[in-house]
Amino acid sequence: MLEKKNGHLGQTLQLSIIIPNPYFSITSSLPEMPLLRFYYLCPINFRHTRMSNIRVRFAPSPTGPLHMGGVRTALYNYLFARHLGGKMILRIEDTDQTRFVEGAEDYIVRSFDWCGIKFDEGVHVGGDFGPYKQSERSDIYRKYIQILLDKGMAYYAFDTPEELDALRKKHEEEKTTFIYDSKSRMQLRNSLSLTKEESEELIQNGTAYVIRFKIPEDQYVFFNDMIRGDVKVHSSSLDDKVLFKSDGLPTYHLANIVDDHLMEISHVIRGEEWLPSAPLHILLYEAFGWEKPLFAHLPVILKPVGKGKLSKRDGDKLGFPVFPLAWTDPKSGETSTGYREEGYLPEAFINMLALLGWNPGTEQEIFSMEQLIESFDIHRVVKSGAKFNPDKAKWFNQQFIRLKSENELAIECSELLKAKGIDASLDYVETLVALIKERLVFIHDFWDQTFFFFEAPQEYDAKVAKKRWKENTSEHIAALAELLKDLSDWKAEPIKERMSAFIQEKELSMGQMMNAIRLALVGSSMGPDLALIAELIGKENCIARMNRAATHIKK
RNA sequence: GCUCCGUUCGUCUAGGGGUUAGGACGCCAGGUUUUCAUCCUGGUAGCAGGGGUUCAAAUCCCCUACGGAGUACCA
Predict the structure, then answer these.
(1) What pLDDT was estimated at residue A540?
(2) Mean pLDDT confidence for A441-467
(3) What is the pLDDT of residue A5?
(4) Measured in angstroms, what separates residue A4's CA from nucleotide B50's C1'?
(5) Nearest-angstrom CA–CA distance, A238 and A214
(6) How far apart, in Å, do the first and last CA atoms of chain A sit?
(7) pLDDT exceeds 90 at position A358
(8) Chain B nucleotides near the protein (CB, 7 A)
(9) Distance separating alpha carbons of residues A107 and A466, to the nearest angstrom
(10) Cross-strand partners of A387
């Protein structure tokens, strides 16, 4: 790993488990102190258990519903923290007022509640490191940006957005990219290019300004990612990012670093989209002289088909949810469905998400949240993006439905029936659940699997009729119905005996006749044991259905 | 374009110098079931390409290709 970056060091370290300690600054060059080398060689678990306070955070922006990628990021944070006995924090990053969406924060909280991801601190539960909403922390950021200004590591920039846009456009036409950096900053309007007096005057006059970070020139920034290993970037490829906007609020970069430091975040586990700005964050920590957290950049979730990452719109197009819960956009009124609404069990959703980009190193696939916590190791998160597979998501749901007790399922199925205006006893529903449990992918499949217990078929599957209904089938069915009238003990066993005896006596084909009866009772060739169906729908219904079929199905 | 990250069956992945390259989803076939589903058994299919290093490379190195992310007074 290190060899790639640093030849001479690589030669001294021949072992492959080299994970640099992030608590030492290694910006300009890799240190060669023996102690550090020892630390590099320490097994990962040793380093984790030594860390007394594991604190991680999930820090969404309330700009809309959280999508499944966000839930997965939060989940990995949660599993990581719980596995190591640490704390999980929910912080709301709402520094961009223009993108604020009403109800988004509440949606985020409700989603985690449904998923079973619990927070130790956060906007909704409080804690000792609050406030947990960035819009309520602006004084804090102002204080810290001043420190950077005083140290000469940040500067005022007076360029208007229009000026910068024009510059970018001009460069684009020339097939180059405009970068606000050490090469261009002296040609722009800022406190570095202007005299002190000029800058002060502009500020006095109320000229709008932003505060930019002064990226140090010509140095390498190293950091270690728990998933990707060592990453090296040259500062010349970084630009002077805006830290403080003209509206008096910080950008993500500043707020994030300040909050993570103040909230004593030990591990930053976030999406891969942050990887390119990680070097900036490292530099920021160093500018403040703060201890850095350990980083882990998670791979993205990709679309099941086609190119690119899974986006909020894919769900509707491809027929699966991308959100945990249904969401209605407050402005457009547009509604998107959620996993919950589509019939997914939260356990299944979580299990599926956990295995999308992580594996336990064993062949176990079905995990409870407790088991996930027990097994989770962030070093087993894969590096590459994972295409989401809706079929596998369904399979997980099917597995978790089987894990549910018949009573639990019956309670939910009863609700389903009630919505259809059917009032069945819980006992009866439970009996049915026991019969068809293995056929359910979703709980709402219950109706498709049991409708014939509640209502007689009005139509008969033409294909099955063609195959099973012969010249005199109607006659036989009517005769059998007549025969069944005399059966006093209406239970599956005697029913079956009576049917078999009839078929044998008439020298009919068992398969043909049984399927014909099934067609009469169910309307198609599906369902559990025929005699059981007959028993459960009752004698009268059974006979009525047979007689109806005898007159309605024509060869 | 530039910067960074990646690449093992169609998909999710194991495997990290010597493996018949393993598992799961999907798909196909057979068995079980009087039907359908379940279940069981089997099958299908993969190391992106090219160079090195090595007795030996999916595994280590380099190049190419492809994919992804970023390139905002968004997060």
Answers:
(1) 93
(2) 92
(3) 28
(4) 21
(5) 10
(6) 76
(7) yes
(8) 1-8, 10-17, 22-26, 34-39, 61-62, 67-75
(9) 52
(10) A302
A17 touches strand B (CB under 7 A): no
Q: Which SS3 state, helix, strand or coil, does residue A155 take?
A: strand
pLDDT per residue over A100-120, tens digit each? 999 999 999 999 999 999 999
Q: Residue A298 CB closer than 7 angstroms to strand B?
A: no
Count of CB atoms situated within 10 Å of the CB of A355: 18
What are the C-alpha distances in Å from A433 to residues A339, A402, A452, A526?
22, 11, 14, 16
> ipTM above 0.90?
yes
> What does the block give as tokens for A150?
């005083």
- Residue A379 CB closer than 7 angstroms to strand B? no
Q: How far apart are CA A129 and CA A141, in angstroms?
A: 15
Please indicate whether residue A312 is annotated as part of the active site.
yes
Q: Which residue has the tokens 């420190």?
A: A147
A119 SS3 class:
coil
CA A62 – CA A97 distance, rounded (Å): 10
pLDDT at A239 over 60: yes
> How far is it, in rounded angstroms, from Cα A410 to Cα A415?
9
Residues 110-149 of chain A in contact with strand B via CB under 7 angstroms: none
Residues 520-549 of A with CB under 7 A from strand B: 525-531
What band does A552 get if pLDDT is binned at 50, 70 and 90? confident
pLDDT tens digits, one per residue of A378-403: 999 999 999 999 999 999 999 999 99
The single residue of A312, A437, A470, A539 carrying the catalytic annotation is A312
- Of A112, A398, A131, A94, the C-alpha closest to A252 is A94
Tell if A354 CB is < 7 Å from nucleic strand B. Answer: no
Residues of A (458-487) placing their beta carbon closer than 7 angstroms to any atom of strand B are none
Using alpha carbons only, how large is chain A's radius of gyration in Å?
Answer: 33
Tokens, residue A328: 């209605």
Q: What is the pTM of this model?
A: 0.89
What are the tens digits of pLDDT across the range A134-149? 999 999 999 999 999 9
DSSP secondary structure letters along A316-365: HHHTS--BSS-EE-TTT--EE-BTTTTT--HHHHHHHHHHSSB--SSS--
CA distance A156 to A210: 6
The structure tokens 């090296």 sit at: A232
Nucleotide nearest to A61 (CA to C1'): B75
Helix (H) or strand (E) holding A327: strand A327-328
Collapsing DSSP to helix, strand or coil, A434 comes out as helix
